[in-house]
């Protein structure tokens, strides 16, 4: 990780869960991390924690609604003006609504597409532009995907969500191919965890807390497990392209 010291990373969805764990570890390794989310205050708290812990890097909170392209573009413009540009982009933000294919709300499907797919594509495009404008040839774009982007479980609540994650799988491989065609050494990686102990399910089942808590007895990965996979990917030699990491708790069946 030494080669990333002092360089700039963008982590979306950095206010909690996997995003917060990734942002914290990158700051520990000496990176300047722009952590974005709608909940600016929670990222501020994390930034204070990093500072008080004496980490060598810096966490810069940024409020951004990833369902709004103008806010995303404004964020990248601010990063360029204030920090030079993005060297590492971790597309972590994502959400799910329990809306099935047969009875789901169009508004829920649209929001999942906007955040889980379109925002990932926009951040990827803008991060690549930032790298190329500065002749950065060793940047890295990492998409936090899901095992739901590799198999469909018999649970109607997550079928549309799974479709968005299959899209991320395709986006990551398509990105790898386009980066190769562009004759660049910028890398693209997909990290696909199974169930992780975060606020994801409680947010998904806001209208049905009992259903969300039903997963409490299921063995899950911790956010730090996924964050450690991000560090592993970034630590790989520059010539090594890690396409996808699929990971889940050893006791998770699907």
TrEMBL record:
It comes from the Eukaryota. Pfam families: adh_short (PF00106). PROSITE patterns: ADH_SHORT. One of its GO terms (molecular function) is 3-beta-hydroxysteroid 3-dehydrogenase (NADP+) activity. Keywords: Oxidoreductase. Gene3D superfamilies: NAD(P)-binding Rossmann-like Domain. SUPFAM superfamilies: NAD(P)-binding Rossmann-fold domains. The keyword Oxidoreductase applies. It catalyses: 17beta-estradiol + NAD(+) = estrone + NADH + H(+); 17beta-estradiol + NADP(+) = estrone + NADPH + H(+); a 3beta-hydroxysteroid + NADP(+) = a 3-oxosteroid + NADPH + H(+). Its EC number is 1.1.1.270, 1.1.1.62. Pathway: Steroid biosynthesis; estrogen biosynthesis. The keyword 4Fe-4S does not apply. Belongs to the short-chain dehydrogenases/reductases (SDR) family. Catalyzes the conversion of the 17-keto group of estrone, 4- and 5-androstenes and 5-alpha-androstanes into their 17-beta-hydroxyl metabolites and the conversion of the 3-keto group of 3-, 3,17- and 3,20- diketosteroids into their 3-hydroxyl metabolites. Exhibits reductive 3-beta-hydroxysteroid dehydrogenase activity toward 5-beta-androstanes, 5-beta-pregnanes, 4-pregnenes and bile acids. May also reduce endogenous and exogenous alpha-dicarbonyl compounds and xenobiotic alicyclic ketones. This is Dehydrogenase/reductase SDR family member 11. It comes from Muraenolepis orangiensis (Patagonian moray cod).
């Amino acid at each position: 990780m030494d080669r990333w010291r002092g360089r700039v990373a963008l982590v979306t969805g950095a206010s909690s869960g996997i995003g917060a764990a990734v942002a914290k570890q990158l700051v520990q390794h000496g990176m300047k991390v722009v952590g974005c989310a709608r909940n600016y205050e929670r990222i501020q708290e994390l930034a204070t924690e990093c500072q008080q812990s004496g980490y060598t890097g810096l966490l810069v909170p940024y409020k951004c609604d990833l369902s709004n392209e103008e806010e995303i573009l404004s964020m990248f413009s601010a990063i360029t003006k204030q920090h030079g540009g993005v060297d590492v982009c971790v597309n972590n933000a994502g959400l799910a609504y329990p809306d099935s294919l047969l009875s789901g709300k169009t508004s829920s499907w649209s929001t999942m597409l906007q955040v889980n797919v379109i925002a990932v594509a926009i951040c990827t495009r803008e991060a690549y532009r930032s790298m190329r404008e500065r002749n950065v040839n060793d940047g890295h774009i990492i998409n936090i995907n899901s095992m739901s982007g590799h198999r469909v479980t018999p649970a109607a609540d997550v079928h549309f969500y799974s479709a968005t994650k299959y899209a991320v799988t395709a986006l990551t491989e398509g990105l790898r191919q386009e980066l190769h065609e562009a004759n660049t050494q910028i890398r693209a990686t997909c990290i696909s965890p199974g169930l992780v102990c975060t606020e994801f399910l409680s947010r998904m089942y806001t209208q049905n807390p009992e259903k969300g808590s039903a997963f409490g007895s299921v063995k899950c990965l911790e956010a730090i497990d996924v964050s450690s996979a991000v560090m592993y990917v970034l630590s790989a030699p520059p010539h090594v392209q890690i396409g996808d990491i699929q990971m889940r708790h050893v006791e998770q069946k699907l």
